[in-house]
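Lecture notes, part 5. Sequence design as translation. It can be helpful to think of inverse folding as translation between two languages: the language of shapes and the language of residues. The source text, in structure tokens, appears below.
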């Protein structure tokens, strides 16, 4: 059976889930759009409930789950990104708990305090995966991990990452209990060049919100670091700064 109408009850539900974070939380699911993203979600063991597929666009192997076929016109109307590869999946949401994370002795963690922009969160996830960061912790989050923009900008990288949300207090207690070296990113004259800091042991680098940086909660909680720059500006986009930090961690660990 081919579904062609937005008035179909299944499509109405899917549309609500696509557009409203609260609907996804209430249902205990997340939505994945795109071929590569769905492949990664399945590869890392996420449990699919059902798929909506447009056969005239979709070019992959049909997944093993309940499938509803939709017309191309309908798919273009409901998909977040138009004609992207003809597949939308609904998956069961399983939140990870920071208490269950057992870091390796040289684990590297990136911590984002109250990150607001889904695109930034997704881009940082992509950098974390690319440079071998062991976990990403978001404290007091203001955006949904499974926002379509997060999934899109991370290219599905979040599905294979250790990603947690916790309060500032819970995160600090975890870092202290696990003997992490904490590095903060306040703008100050006493900040040390990131290239001169030892990031080879258990290391956690903290970044604050896009508009105001880290809150006072994290003052004097660790060594303050800075990324050296040669231009006239004094700050970088959050995702760029995090990417540089992730690379520096990898660079140091590759040193002989």
């Amino acid at each position: 059976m081919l579904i062609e109408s937005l008035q179909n009850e299944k499509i109405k539900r899917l549309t609500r889930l696509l557009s409203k974070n609260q609907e996804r939380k209430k249902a205990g699911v997340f939505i994945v759009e795109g071929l590569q993203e769905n492949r990664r979600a399945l590869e890392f063991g996420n449990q699919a409930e059902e798929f909506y597929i447009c056969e005239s666009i979709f070019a992959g192997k049909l997944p093993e789950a309940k499938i509803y076929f939709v017309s191309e016109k309908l798919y273009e109307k409901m998909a977040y990104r138009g004609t992207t590869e003809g597949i939308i999946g609904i998956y069961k949401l399983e939140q990870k708990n920071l208490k269950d994370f057992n870091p390796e002795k040289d684990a590297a963690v990136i911590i984002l305090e109250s990150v607001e922009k889904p695109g930034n969160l997704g881009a940082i996830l992509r950098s974390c995966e690319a440079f071998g960061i062991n976990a990403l912790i978001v404290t007091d989050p203001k955006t949904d991990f499974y926002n379509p923009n997060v999934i899109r900008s991370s290219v599905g990288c979040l599905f294979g990452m250790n990603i947690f949300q916790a309060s500032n207090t819970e995160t600090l207690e975890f870092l202290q209990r696990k003997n992490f070296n904490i590095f903060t990113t306040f703008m100050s004259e006493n900040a040390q060049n990131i290239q001169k800091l030892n990031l080879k042991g258990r290391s956690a680098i903290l970044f604050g919100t896009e508009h105001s940086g880290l809150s006072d909660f994290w003052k004097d909680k660790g060594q303050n670091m800075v990324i050296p720059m040669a231009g006239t500006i004094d700050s970088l986009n959050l995702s760029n700064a995090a990417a540089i930090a992730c690379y520096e961690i990898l660079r140091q660990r590759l040193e002989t």
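The translated text above is only one of many valid answers, since several sequences can fold into similar shapes. The radius of gyration is 20 Å.
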